[in-house]
Specification:
The chain is mainly alpha-helical. The chain contains eight helices and no strands. Helix 3 runs parallel beside helix 5, helix 4 packs antiparallel against helix 5 and helix 6 packs antiparallel against helix 8. The longest helix is centred in the first third of the chain and has 37 residues.
């Protein structure tokens, strides 16, 4: 059983507490914003047709299995980057960050190719109509090409930027691109242009491109490196 001594808690300074809160709040807001955004996407897809909504749900379930590697790498990058920044080795943090970005791009190409080739076989596991199946395969092919970018975004935002103490920018990058680009394009495609769901999904992918551009620019600036525990 873990024993907590009161005198240990007394070593937590007000400055450290403030930094923890300042880092924690953007992460919480980021997750809330992200969850609400995907709920709104579901509304847009559902208004196109029941078949469109079914196709998107199938493809999300399959694609998420391929993105698991990204969340694993994000956790690893957050630990490694945060550790070296805390040790005052900022040059190593930069080195690790770009190595993870390159690894994500390479791994994303491999996973994307795998998804592209197995898409028909995996989609056929679901008992759906021919139209839903055909649409699902098309969306899976779209996702296959965007996986390298999505993996890079997951690691850059969830891993590197948060691990580097730059949770505020991570929140802005994900929240603003989703709500100013992704969500409006989803509704424009579904309600104004009345496009088929696969084209709406393709429009929404502009969010991932913008997110990647913002993340890369931030990483190049080195402003993301923030030692949140130094001198507290």
């Amino acid at each position: 059983m873990l024993r907590i001594r009161i005198k240990v808690l007394r070593t937590v300074t007000s400055e450290l507490f403030k930094r923890v809160i300042a880092t924690m709040i953007p992460v919480i807001l980021n997750e809330i914003c992200w969850g609400l955004g995907f709920a709104v996407y579901s509304v847009a897809y559902g208004r196109i047709s029941t078949e469109a909504f079914a196709a998107v749900q199938i493809t999300n379930n399959i694609t998420n299995l391929f993105l698991v590697a990204g969340f694993g790498m994000a956790s690893a990058s957050a630990i490694m980057v945060g550790h070296v920044i805390g040790a005052g080795e900022e040059h190593k943090a930069k080195e690790y960050a770009w190595k993870f970005v390159r690894l994500c791009l390479l791994g994303g190409v491999v996973l994307g190719a795998a998804l592209y080739f197995i898409a028909p076989a995996v989609a056929n596991l679901f008992e759906v109509t021919a139209d839903v199946l055909r649409t699902a395969i098309i969306i899976l092919n779209i996702n296959a090409f965007i996986i390298p970018i999505r993996l890079t975004n997951i690691v850059s935002i969830v891993g590197i930027l948060r691990g580097g103490g730059d949770a505020g920018f991570a929140f802005k990058a994900e929240g603003l691109t989703m709500w100013l680009i992704g969500v409006p394009l989803a509704f424009i495609g579904a309600f104004v242009l009345k496009l088929d769901v696969q084209w709406v999904v393709l429009l929404v992918m502009a969010e991932e491109l913008a997110k990647m551009a913002a993340s890369v620019i931030r990483l190049k600036s080195d402003k993301w490196i923030k030692n949140v525990v130094i001198e507290v």
